[in-house]
Specification:
Blueprint (H helix, E strand, L loop, with lengths): L1 E3 L8 H17 L4 E4 L5 E6 L8 E3 L2 E7 L2 E5 L2 E5 L3 E5 L3 E7 L8 E7 L2 H11 L13 E5 L2 H12 L7 H17 L5 H7 L4 H15 L6 H7 L4 H12 L3 H20 L3 H7 L5 H12 L3 H11 L1
Parallel strand pairs: 1-7
Antiparallel strand pairs: 2-3, 3-10, 4-9, 5-8, 5-10, 6-7, 6-9, 8-11
Helix pairs in contact: 1-3, 2-5, 3-4, 6-8, 6-9, 9-10
């Protein structure tokens, strides 16, 4: 198990002032504990008053910034931590879980999530031309980077639009475009750049991820998936693991088990039925793999989850 944790920095006065304003805006527009979808498309305001562990779920590409508190995100055996000094970017759809480390009614965890559309990155690159984004070996589809005043300023201007709803249709797309530009010009902007470039291997891995997300219940033949995205089998294995930290088969397994857990918890399906629904033919294999991921067989895990609700 590896721990990937940002360096602790002294917050400079300008950044601290921005952080305080961000916290005030989130508290005003998200007065109750929840993740609130705002009037700005793809912008979510998050407030939690207790340290909670989230269920493993498929995270779509997004920028995540905290105004207060800290969060640890798990991708496979890797742990990433971010806080008001650092933002997190998920550049491809990934099965992750997380835990809020600092949250109470007196000091709630306050955050923002802005979903990222790779097509908008592509449009930005087409209009702006070369941005000087370095061509570096592709890394994980998730990274933590230091927050900077220019990025935070753009995010604040986007959230301020919630106080002037009539300005949202015209100004929000422009500001979101600026935020993408700031991310692309950041130290790890190449990770976003690669997912938008049609001929890059990372873009083809994204296509493989999209295929798995839509067909996870079907039998997986790696050779067929490699042909689907125009990569050799060995290259697909290597690049897929570089981006997601897991093999295509492990990725598919996570998707299957997450969906089975949802079906049992939300729809009341029995374990054997849920396992069959997501592609398992053997109830015993489903139970073994479920226990390995969630730490208990389905019946005990669901009882634990329901008692916590």
């Amino acid at each position: 198990m590896s721990a990937i944790e940002p360096d602790r920095l002294i917050l400079d006065p300008a950044l601290e002032q921005q952080r305080q304003e961000l916290a005030v805006l989130i508290q005003r527009h998200a007065p109750r504990q929840a993740g609130v979808e705002s009037a700005v498309e793809d912008l979510f305001l998050v407030r939690y008053e207790e340290s909670v562990r989230s269920m493993p779920a498929l995270a779509e590409p997004a920028l995540c910034i905290l105004a207060h508190g800290s969060k640890e995100v798990c991708l496979g055996d890797e742990h990433y931590r971010y806080d008001p000094l650092h933002y997190m970017v998920v550049s491809v759809a990934l099965p992750i879980s997380g835990v809020l480390l600092e949250a109470s009614p007196e000091n709630p965890s306050l955050g923002v999530r802005l979903n990222i559309d790779p097509a908008q990155i592509n449009n930005l690159l087409a209009d702006a031309g070369p941005l000087g984004v370095p061509a570096l070996p592709s890394g994980r589809g998730l990274y933590v980077e230091r927050t900077n005043p220019l990025l935070l300023d753009a995010l604040l201007r986007l959230i301020r639009l919630l106080d002037s709803p009539k300005d949202i249709p015209i100004l929000a797309p422009l500001i979101k475009r600026e935020i993408l530009y700031r991310l692309l010009r950041g130290p790890q902007g190449y990770r976003l750049y690669e997912i938008a470039m049609a001929n890059s291997q990372t873009h083809r891995v994204c296509q493989a991820i999209e295929w798995l997300n839509q067909h996870f219940h079907q039998p997986l033949r790696i050779d067929d998936l490699a042909r689907e995205v125009n990569l050799s089998t060995s290259t697909l294995h290597h690049r897929f693991k570089a981006v997601t930290s897991m093999s295509p088969l492990q990725y598919q397994k996570q998707l299957r088990l997450q969906e089975a857990r949802r079906l049992m918890l939300n729809d009341g399906l029995e374990a054997a039925v849920a396992g069959y629904r997501v592609g398992y033919e053997s109830p015993s294999q489903f139970s073994r793999e479920y226990s390995r991921l969630y730490g208990a067989p389905p019946v005990r895990d669901l009882a634990r989850l329901r008692s916590a609700l």
